[in-house]
């Protein structure tokens, strides 16, 4: 598995069924029913985090915490090695004839380096995984999906009852239904 | 189970919808600047000019234009450094610590408080950097290979710890702030009309679409960054306090310094947040977002941290007496009754006594009064650093080196000038970026539990 989450791109996909909501509760109820009916929800675009939606659409638990731990260990190792090399190996500094070896006074620099490495390392992976790149063309389905609308996207599969899916969307308060195929959206 | 809260007051008033939030918060960005903004920005630029002139005078004449001397080798510069670093701490406390404690009221104020952190750290960094005198060799503070041996930096020195702490704090705060901004920048990208605006916000929004998958990871990274920032913010002021505490100067050599400095930093930081937000909520019409409830919560924190700082002052006195060390005892008696008694009593009045007024509900819920008190808090905290630095240094072990110290015009100019840097950055931020976290505020419009 690559780092980039390929599900985030909408290019080269089958026909998509789109439902647009304005109410979070109705969206949740609709998403829940659609998922229970065995239809795979590709994604839901929301202007703010709606808790519980990720589980409904079957998004896997993020491994970011493990990556953060890995970055932290890397940072700690790098800083400890750096201090040891500079302070003990390359040019031992005589301060009050104290022994030149590992002391607790190394801790602040080790700690700060660990935090720096963790924060930036983890964020780099976060950007990569989520296809967040400066200057990338954004694939918006609705100009208001970053404002007040919530957009559910379902990729059609063979044998999918599209009408039934649209009905479920409509019954749960979707204010607009659309189809998206070959880069063209059609309002139903 | 999620349900509407019947106990808690709404965090956002005025029955706002998600669309209203976007419209209200994006208004200053999408429209021409208001007169209040223009006046404020011009004033900030004037102060920025004062900073520029004072700095150029210092650079071209030499550090001798400051009144620091062989006894009081740290004066206004390090006072101002600690003052500004302290102010920055409230931003991280609000965005990181309150996130870990799941305090939803932070959502309306975290963005501006984080911005304040970044600008305050920039102001703070000016002082130690230019106190070096030969600022062009400032990179000597970094562990870089060099032609002196190679003679590396001293990892036992708190001053070096400071270099690492402040730079890490600045970088991580900037990253945390930027990641928090991405969804809101995307909202602005989809609202702004001008081509330049679309390009700029489009570039900065990194192709954000609001996918549920991304939101789930986004919330996780925010949580981990908050978990990292919390010990980081504690470490920063702890390290700043060790600049003093690891020396053998009477009045500095105390183990209470780290917790005392951290509490003081949060205290002064909340003072500055209150100063800014009381004005911003009025001028920018954000009273429904930054409510009286927010001011109430912030003033309670000011009162608690002010009291912690006050107890630290008293503990220092007790320990000086209890230690039986005549130098310690003299340092503290000199603070209280020596030539700088006015600074000491200003500090005590502003930091310990004045915030006790927040026991009264009226004081916690009256914006104009909170504004005045927030200034009092910041004056008090500046005096605290002045008292710690100057009263300890001006009379040390050797009476022949006792001196008096007062800031020169250049030092005063530099201090006033940093307000220019701070407010210029803040006004630019208020014009070009959303001052309130729109995405987070939209998620708390319904009073859910």
Q: How would you characterize the overall build of this protein?
A:
The complex is a heterodimer of chains A (188) and B (449). Chain A has 188 residues and is α+β, with helices and mostly antiparallel strands. Chain A folds into two domains: 6-60 and 138-187, Alpha-Beta Plaits; 64-129, no CATH class. Chain A is built from five helices and five strands, in the order βαβαααβαββ. In chain A, strands 2-3-1-4-5 form a five-stranded antiparallel beta sheet. In chain A, α1 (24-36) packs antiparallel against α5 (162-171) and α3 (64-90) packs antiparallel against α4. Chain A is elongated and about 85 Å long. The two termini of chain A are 37 Å apart. Chain B is an all-alpha fold. In chain B, 69% of the residues lie in helices and 0% in strands. Chain B has 15 helices and no strands. In chain B, α5 (158-189) packs across α6 and α9 (292-323) packs across α10 (326-337). The termini of chain B are close together. Classes of the chains: A alpha+beta (188), B mainly alpha (449). The interface between A and B is large, with 63 and 64 residues.
Summarize it:
The complex is a heterodimer of chains A (188) and B (449). Chain A has five helices and five strands; from the N terminus they run βαβαααβαββ. By secondary structure, chain A is of the alpha+beta class.
Strand order, sheet with most strands of chain A: 2-3-1-4-5
Number of helices of chain A: 5
Report mean pLDDT of chain A, rounded to a whole number.
88
Identify the CATH architecture of the largest domain in chain A: 2-Layer Sandwich
Instruction: Provide the CATH top-level class of the largest domain in chain A.
Output: Alpha Beta
Biggest interface goes to: A-B, 63 and 64 residues
H and E string of chain A: EHEHHHEHEE
Distance between the termini of chain B: 8 Å
CATH topology of the largest domain in chain A: Alpha-Beta Plaits
Order of helices and strands of chain B: HHHHHHHHHHHHHHH
Largest sheet of chain B: none
% residues in beta strands of chain A: 5-15%
């Amino acid at each position: 598995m690559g780092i980039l989450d390929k599900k985030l791109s909408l290019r080269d996909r089958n026909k998509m069924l789109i439902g647009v909501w304005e109410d979070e509760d109705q969206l949740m109820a609709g998403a829940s029913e659609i998922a229970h009916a065995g239809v795979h929800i590709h994604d839901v675009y929301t202007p703010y985090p709606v808790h519980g939606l990720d589980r409904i659409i079957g998004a896997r638990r993020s491994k970011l915490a493990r990556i953060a731990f890995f970055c932290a260990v890397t940072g700690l190792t790098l800083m400890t090695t750096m201090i040891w090399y500079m302070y003990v190996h390359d040019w031992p500094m005589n301060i009050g004839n104290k022994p030149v070896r590992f002391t607790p006074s190394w801790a602040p620099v080790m700690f700060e380096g660990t935090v720096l490495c963790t924060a930036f390392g983890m964020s780099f992976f976060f950007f990569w995984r989520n296809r967040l790149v400066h200057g990338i063309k954004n694939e918006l389905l609705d100009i208001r999906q970053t404002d007040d609308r919530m957009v559910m996207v379902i990729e059609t599969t063979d044998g999918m009852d599209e009408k039934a899916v649209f009905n479920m969307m409509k019954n749960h308060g979707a204010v607009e239904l659309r189809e998206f195929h070959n880069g063209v959206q059609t309002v139903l | 189970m999620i349900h509407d809260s019947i106990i808690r007051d709404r965090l956002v008033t005025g029955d706002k919808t998600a669309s209203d939030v976007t419209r209200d918060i994006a208004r200053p960005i999408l429209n021409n600047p208001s007169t209040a903004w223009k006046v404020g920005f011009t004033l900030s630029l004037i102060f920025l000019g004062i900073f520029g002139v004072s700095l150029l005078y210092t650079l071209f004449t030499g550090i001798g234009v400051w009144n620091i001397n062989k006894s009081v080798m740290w004066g206004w510069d390090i006072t101002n450094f600690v003052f500004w670093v302290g102010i920055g701490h409230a931003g991280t406390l609000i965005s990181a610590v309150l996130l870990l404690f799941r305090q939803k009221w932070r959502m309306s104020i975290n963005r501006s408080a984080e911005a304040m952190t970044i600008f305050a750290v920039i102001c703070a960094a000016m002082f130690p950097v230019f106190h070096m005198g030969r600022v062009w060799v400032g990179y000597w503070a970094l562990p870089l290979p060099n032609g002196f041996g190679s003679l590396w930096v001293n990892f036992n020195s708190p001053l070096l710890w400071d270099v690492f702490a402040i730079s890490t704090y600045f970088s991580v705060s900037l990253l945390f702030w930027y990641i928090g901004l991405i969804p809101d920048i995307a909202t602005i990208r989809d609202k702004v009309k001008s081509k330049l605006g679309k390009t700029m916000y489009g570039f900065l929004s990194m192709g954000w679409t609001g996918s549920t998958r991304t939101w789930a990871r986004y919330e996780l990274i925010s949580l981990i960054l908050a978990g990292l920032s919390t010990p980081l913010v504690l470490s920063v002021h702890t390290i700043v306090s060790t600049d003093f505490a690891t020396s053998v100067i009477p009045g500095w050599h105390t183990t209470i310094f780290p917790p005392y400095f951290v509490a003081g930093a949060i205290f002064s930081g909340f003072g500055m947040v209150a100063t800014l937000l009381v004005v911003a909520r009025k001028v920018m019409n954000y009273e429904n977002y930054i409510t009286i409830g927010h001011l109430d919560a912030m003033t309670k924190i000011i009162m608690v941290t002010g009291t912690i700082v006050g107890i630290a002052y008293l503990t220092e006195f007790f320990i000086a007496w209890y230690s039986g060390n005549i130098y310690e005892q003299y340092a503290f008696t000199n603070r209280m009754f020596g030539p700088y008694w006015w600074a000491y009593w200003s500090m005590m009045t502003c930091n310990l006594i004045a915030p006790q007024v927040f026991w009264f509900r009226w004081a916690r819920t009256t914006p104009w009064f909170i504004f005045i008190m927030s200034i009092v808090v910041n004056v008090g905290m500046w005096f605290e650093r002045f008292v710690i630095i100057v009263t300890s240094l001006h009379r040390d072990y050797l009476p022949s080196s006792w001196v008096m110290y007062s800031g020169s015009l250049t030092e005063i100019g530099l201090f006033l000038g940093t307000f220019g840097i701070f407010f210029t950055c803040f006004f630019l931020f208020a014009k070009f970026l959303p001052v309130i976290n729109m995405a987070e505020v939209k998620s708390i419009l319904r009073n859910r539990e």
